[in-house]
Amino acid sequence: MFRRRTALSVSAAAALLAATPLLTACGSEAHPGAAAIVDGKRITVAQLQTRVKDVRAAQAASPEGNQLIANTGRLGLSTLNGMIFDEVLARSAADAGVTVTRADVQKGRAAAEEQAGGPARLKQMWLQQGIAPDRIDAVVRNQLLLDGLAKHLHVDRATPTGQRTLVQALAKTSRSLGVDVNPRYGTWDDQQVILGQTKEPWIVPSTPRQQQA
């Protein structure tokens, strides 16, 4: 199983609409309505709120909805962290000539579903991590891009040395993209490639056994 980068936790059903604060600027008045700017590209508050609402709606529809919502707090922060990381990883992979096809994603998802115990179980596991079902392919793609980037760098992603090398490569890309986060969400850490108020980096590999523990 693939593992996501952050652990989350929030409160109650009202979080369906309130998980992301309403903001009007990104560090300056030059970017109204933006939660972050990455290489001049706006990640808008509206886009972030939509992503959060999709997760909350999927969680609310689950029999374990109350528990899922309670265990995935600060969802706005972790979601923005992921949206920024997507851009950094995509650029790093492109610069390294790493590509992932739709067939690769389908194969990777099938393997993840088998390891999880079926498609429904995989969706539930990702909901526990704040990932909506329609984002699973994107998460699988990211994991494959990380694998490809590790191969390009001639490192083993499962080792501490390999992780450090990956972080260094992603940090270099992150700095070049000039990530600017709305201060109400915190500060982007180029060195660790995470949003400062989140706790864990994306690229923490795990085996199926570790994921189930």
- Provide the helix percentage: 40-55%
How would you describe the shape? globular
How can the largest sheet be summarized? 3 strands, antiparallel
Q: Largest beta sheet: what is the strand line-up?
A: 2-1-3
Gyration radius over CA: 17 Å
Question: Overview of this structure, please?
Answer:
This protein is mainly α. It has one domain. It is built from nine helices and five strands; from the N terminus they run αββαααααααβββα. It has helices spanning 15-18, 45-60, 65-70, 75-96, 102-116, 119-127, 136-152, 160-177, 208-212; strands at residues 34-38, 41-44, 180-181, 188-189, 194-195. A three-stranded antiparallel beta sheet has the order 2-1-3. α4 (75-96) packs across α7 (136-152), α5 (102-116) crosses α6 and α5 crosses α7. The protein is globular, with a radius of gyration of 17 Å. 37% of the residues are buried. Residues 1-30 and 203-213 have low confidence and may be disordered.
Features:
mainly alpha; globular; disordered C terminus; 9 helices
Write the SSE topology:
Layout: H1 15-18, E1 34-38, E2 41-44, H2 45-60, H3 65-70, H4 75-96, H5 102-116, H6 119-127, H7 136-152, H8 160-177, E3 180-181, E4 188-189, E5 194-195, H9 208-212
Antiparallel strand pairs: 1-2, 1-3, 4-5
Helix pairs in contact: 2-4, 4-7, 4-8, 5-6, 5-7
